[in-house]
């Protein structure tokens, strides 16, 4: 947070967050998903089971997991506010009567330690068990993500299998109609019902395995003819005048490509050159498995060299038993990690892309959690055209020169299928790239800006021409914990931006480059630099030559969007807000959404950069009660205010005429990290049901 000249901002954070809490929040995406896999249950003999709250859990989700009512949990634990539980909190779970703890399998026929590239459904196939059985045996859902090193119980034949026709309408004619549910994928539907993606695509004349929308009805073939009975339902797409996918041939195993386009490479990694491209539904024979079991070697028509495809972007048909697993020494030599020359930086400004115009966007978290389909569908339901996802460099190039872009492709393909645009905000250097003696408790920049430029060049090249339209170069670099606890220095950021811009444009000239958004803040010694002063310093050093848009993070707090900073205190008093008085105690532009945006615009005009739009890559109002007492403004804002102010802010930005796509923070953190500070800005509840703001944005004139 910030308070004029002496305090930090709190767009999503408190006045001065301790390093310990920051480190915890930085690990949230992994912890959130892991929480769905580990129950931490200690059986008691007193009629209660103890559950230790994990990051991202909510009371309602815990109640559902144990088959008890929310009220029973509230009563058993004397909870005053069901919305406020904390990581590490110990809860008593009633186990009397019908409220027993989740059942566990009586025995495991086998155990399996997860390795890189595996999925729950793939493991189920390999052991010949149903995915429902495997999920039940391990206390998880069929959509759960699994982690390297995780030990899974493989149930014996006594456990109910995963096949069946749950949710379908039997017809007695060799299949049934199925209504697509939120979060469904074609491969998941196929596996759960004992068929294949190819068969479903053939039966429904689907041209794209990723084009699947909830609420539609599709025919699930079961054995006999794949032709559905007339008049029984409507498929997602109308028949297309092109060859239909073929059912699996004998002599497998086979992999069926799922994305619209799947790259075929010369080796098991994204660093190898592309040999060909498979379209959705293409079936190829598997001849080998990569050293980390995350790539398949396959036979591709017209490709004589060994061909490899990324495993997680395929549907497996058949068993991998007996398929050769390659060692590292048996695969083609990996291309050199260290390039011979620095990433290009233009000696003169490149031709700037035409202004993209105002657009409606929202930030979501979709990495490693299987949420991309429903998140994209919800974005379309809002009538928005943009989605932002933060990409951590340290995750996708943890070893220098080895780029793990496979986990990003599901997001890109989901957006491709729905006609949405993506903004990637790239942050956090991997350990190998940082300076000697770096502070590992916080994220930070690399010692050599060229290493970041090369990564961004590879990222831009990988997704050039896809739904990825823009890359934001870093995030909130005027805060100490976003800059590695190093001295905050606009010159250092410009040294990072210049080669990054050159590398991105060299790889993909059509990619929009957005400067890292600053956090609105006052000067606070080594902890923060006033964002207006930082922005002006960047402009003085040629910022306008190296971007297509200026990133911004205008904050809301408990101040309406049309209030300027001079009247923010009066606005707070008029709305009756009592829990947070920063705008009164320390008047400063950073409390005001409008003053922050107009201040950036005035500075851009002063330096002759009025033709470059401002991209608010994060803005919004927390509401509905603070999950942490230090976020008092979330207690001041009710859900109706959040809805009204957000609509007003979108309308203001649209009417200004100098704003590019604007991204609301956030869509789904109440789903993936409920109970955390990030969730206070979410616009759907933890079960994806809409809050008032969602309804207001969907109905807003655009």
Q: Can you put this structure into words, describing what you see?
A:
By secondary structure, the chain is an alpha/beta fold. It has 2 domains: 168-237 and 244-328, Roll (SH3 type barrels), CATH 2.30.30.40; 359-699, TIM Barrel. Helix content is 27%, strand content 17%. Strands 9, 12, 13, 14, 15 and 16 form a 6-stranded mixed sheet that branches. It has a 6-stranded parallel sheet with strand order 21-20-19-18-17-24. The model is unreliable at 1-46, 97-106, 158-172, 233-249 and 337-350 (pLDDT under 50).
Summary?
The protein has 702 residues and is an alpha/beta fold. It is built from 21 helices and 24 strands.
Topology:
Elements: H1 19-26, H2 28-35, E1 41-43, E2 48-52, H3 59-66, H4 70-77, E3 90-94, E4 108-113, H5 120-127, H6 131-137, E5 151-155, E6 168-170, E7 175-179, H7 186-192, H8 197-204, E8 217-221, E9 254-257, E10 261-265, E11 274-279, E12 283-289, E13 295-299, E14 307-310, E15 314-317, E16 324-325, E17 359-363, H9 372-382, E18 386-392, H10 393-396, H11 409-418, E19 421-427, H12 449-463, E20 468-475, H13 490-507, E21 512-517, H14 531-540, E22 550-552, H15 568-575, H16 582-585, H17 593-606, E23 614-616, H18 633-636, H19 639-656, E24 661-664, H20 669-672, H21 692-699
Parallel strand pairs: 12-16, 17-18, 17-24, 18-19, 19-20, 20-21, 22-23
Antiparallel strand pairs: 1-2, 2-3, 4-5, 6-7, 7-8, 9-12, 9-15, 10-11, 12-13, 13-14
Helix pairs in contact: 5-6, 9-11, 12-13, 13-14, 14-17, 19-21
């Amino acid at each position: 947070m910030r308070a004029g000249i002496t305090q930090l901002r709190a767009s999503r954070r408190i006045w001065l967050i301790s390093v310990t809490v920051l480190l915890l929040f930085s690990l949230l995406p992994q912890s959130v998903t892991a929480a769905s896999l580990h129950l931490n249950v200690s059986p008691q003999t007193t009629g209660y089971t103890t559950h230790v709250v994990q990051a991202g859990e909510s009371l309602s989700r815990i109640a559902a997991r144990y088959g008890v009512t929310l009220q029973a949990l509230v009563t058993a634990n004397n909870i005053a506010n069901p919305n406020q539980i904390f990581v590490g909190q110990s809860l008593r779970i009633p186990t009397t009567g019908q409220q027993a703890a989740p059942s566990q399998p009586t025995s495991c026929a086998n155990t399996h330690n997860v390795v890189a590239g595996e999925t729950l459904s793939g493991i189920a196939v390999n052991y010949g068990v149903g995915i429902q059985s495997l999920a039940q045996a391990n206390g998880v859902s069929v959509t759960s993500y699994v982690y390297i090193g995780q030990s899974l119980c493989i149930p014996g034949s006594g456990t109910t299998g995963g096949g069946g026709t749950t949710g379908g309408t039997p017809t007695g004619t060799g299949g049934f109609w199925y209504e697509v549910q939120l979060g469904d994928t074609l491969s998941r539907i196929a596996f759960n019902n004992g068929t294949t993606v190819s068969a479903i695509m053939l039966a429904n004349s689907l041209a794209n395995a990723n084009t699947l929308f909830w609420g539609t009805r599709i025919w699930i073939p079961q054995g006999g003819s794949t032709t559905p009975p007339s008049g029984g339902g409507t498929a997602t797409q109308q028949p297309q005048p092109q060859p239909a996918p073929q059912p699996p041939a004998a002599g497998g195993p086979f992999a069926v490509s799922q994305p619209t386009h799947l790259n075929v490479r010369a080796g098991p990694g994204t660093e190898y050159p592309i040999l060909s491209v498979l379209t959705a539904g293409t079936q190829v024979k598997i001849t080998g498995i990569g050293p980390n079991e995350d790539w398949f070697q396959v036979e591709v028509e017209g490709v004589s060299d060994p061909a490899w495809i990324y495993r997680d972007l395929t549907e497996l048909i058949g068993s991998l038993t007996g398929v050769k697993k390659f060692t590292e020494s048996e695969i083609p030599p990996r291309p050199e990690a260290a390039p011979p020359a620095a990433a290009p930086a233009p000696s003169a400004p490149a031709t700037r892309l035409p202004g993209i115009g105002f657009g409606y966007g929202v930030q979501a978290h979709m990495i490693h959690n299987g949420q991309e389909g429903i998140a994209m569908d919800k974005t379309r339901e809002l009538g928005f055209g943009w989605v932002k996802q933060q990409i951590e460099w340290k995750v996708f190039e943890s070893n220098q020169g080895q780029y793990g872009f496979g986990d990003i492709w599901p997001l890109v393909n989901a957006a491709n299928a729905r006609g949405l645009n993506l903004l990637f905000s790239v942050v956090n250097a991997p350990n190998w790239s940082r300076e000697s003696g770096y502070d590992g408790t916080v994220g930070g920049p690399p010692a050599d800006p060229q290493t970041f430029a090369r990564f961004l060049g590879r990222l831009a090249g990988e997704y050039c021409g896809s739904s990825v339209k823009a890359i934001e170069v870093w995030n909130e670099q005027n805060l100490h914990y976003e800059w590695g606890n190093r001295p905050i220095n606009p010159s250092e950021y410009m040294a990072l931006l210049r080669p990054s811009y050159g590398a991105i444009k060299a790889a993909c000239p059509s990619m929009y480059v957005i400067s890292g958004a600053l956090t609105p803040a006052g000067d606070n010694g080594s902890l923060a630099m006033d964002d207006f002063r930082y922005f002006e310093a960047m402009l003085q050093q040629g910022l306008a030559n190296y971007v297509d848009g200026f990133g911004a993070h205008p904050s809301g707090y408990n101040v309406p969007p049309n209030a300027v900073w001079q009247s923010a205190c009066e606005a707070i008093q008029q709305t009756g807000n009592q829990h947070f008085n920063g705008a009164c105690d320390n008047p400063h532009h950073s409390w005001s959404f409008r003053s922050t945006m107009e201040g950036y615009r005035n500075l851009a005009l002063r330096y002759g950069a009025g033709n470059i739009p401002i991209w608010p890559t994060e803005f919004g109002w927390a509401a509905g009660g603070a999950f942490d007492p230090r976020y008092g403004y979330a207690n001041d804002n009710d859900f109706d205010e959040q809805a009204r102010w957000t609509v007003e802010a979108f309308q203001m930005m649209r009417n200004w005429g100098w704003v590019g796509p604007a991204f609301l923070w956030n869509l789904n953190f109440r789903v993936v990290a409920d109970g955390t500070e990030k969730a206070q800005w979410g616009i759907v509840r933890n079960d994806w049901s809409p809050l008032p703001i969602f309804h207001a944005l969907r109905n807003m004139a655009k």
